[in-house]
């Protein structure tokens, strides 16, 4: 199984880049992992928020394979405890899933076609975070889940 961390927007900002790289490196001790940053749709004054999300969704859907497990990060999703995330990752690994993709949407979020395609919609918090911080939090939480799988001391419940 390979873990993909997808995000719509610009490259990692310097203020979070080091942390993202560190947690990504740590995840790689458990699973192959890769970031993929998709450019945001070009903003045109004639585009509504929904049209912008639809353009981004088209690119994302074309990049997905039929058997990819897609976890869409969305504020309306279900919240997980760290142990629940860990169990989910273990379940995917046990099923020999080829790819598990965690997707962070663009500035306006994810289009309904992505939410419908997702195997699960996950909310990190009821709070709203900048996309750059969501990347760092996501990488750290996946690393934490991996340490839980191995009963390592990083996570204290």
Characteristics:
Alpha/beta knot; globular; five-stranded parallel beta sheet; alpha/beta; single chain; 5 strands; 157 residues
Description:
The protein is α/β, with parallel strands linked by helices and 157 residues long. It is built from five helices and five strands. A five-stranded parallel β-sheet has the order 2-1-4-3-5. The radius of gyration is 15 Å and the shape is globular.
Characterize the largest beta sheet: strand count, sense, and whether it forms a barrel: 5 strands, parallel
Task: Give start-end ranges of low-pLDDT stretches.
Answer: none
Number of strands: 5
Q: What structural class do helix, strand and pairing data support?
A: alpha/beta
Q: What kind of oligomer do you see?
A: single chain
Write the layout of secondary structure elements.
Blueprint: E1 2-8, H1 14-27, E2 33-38, H2 49-63, E3 69-78, H3 82-94, E4 99-104, H4 112-117, E5 120-122, H5 131-149
In short:
43% of the residues lie in helices and 20% in strands. It has a single domain, classed as SPOUT methyltransferase, trefoil knot domain (Alpha/beta knot), CATH 3.40.1280. A five-stranded parallel beta sheet has the order 2-1-4-3-5.
